[in-house]
Design goal:
Elements lengths: L2 E6 L6 H12 L4 E6 L2 H6 L2 E4 L5 H10 L3 H10 L2 E4 L1 H4 L4 E2 L4 E2 L6 E5 L17 E9 L13 E7 L1 E5 L5 E6 L3 E8 L2 E4 L7 H13 L3
Parallel strand pairs: 1-2, 1-3, 3-4, 4-13, 5-7
Antiparallel strand pairs: 5-6, 7-10, 8-9, 8-11, 11-12, 12-13
Helix pairs in contact: 1-6
Length: 215
Amino acid sequence: MTRTVAVVDYGMGNLRSVSQAVIHAAEGQGFDVAITCDPNVVRAAERVVLPGQGAMRDCMRELADSGVKEAVLEAAATKPLLGVCVGMQMLLDHSEEQDTPGLGLIPGRVQRFRLEGRLQEDRSRFKVPQMGWNRVRQAQPHAVWDGIPDESWFYFVHSFYATTTDPRHSAGETDYGARFTCAVARDNIFATQFHPEKSAALGLALYRNFLHWKP
């Protein structure tokens, strides 16, 4: 029996590269990938991927206007859900970016990097957004990390970062000016600030782990 993973298309996000990576990860794994804005398809899917890119206020508005927000909230309560980039930030309570409320699924806030005038170890200035490869420390064991070495490199593009209220929800951390949460997890939800779809073989491995994760 073929199962379905829904990649939510609400008009925002790095949709093409995320969906292509999920399709690639799903090859031979018994999954169909549906790129959809249809709430009924999201509800019928076994698991859901929520991408996001750009300003969080725009993402939250488009998610609501698309008509798929309630289906995403239902999925977050009942089935494996993977958030990516701003799709991770949206899961938290609030973002400093344009004073934007999030979905409130994981307690925490999204804050802007404040690195003006600070220097890195090589004496170069910190740049915002953080753009490029960075090491990720696995803050706690999780099935989505299976087979991925601790301190692996993943690709980031972001100007805002997450702070979780409860450290148990911080699944991955990285350093850029200071250590911050770059992956969150709670029950059937896992989400990353970095882009697995831009992170070569280990990113595909993370997507594949998500497909087989049984919370």
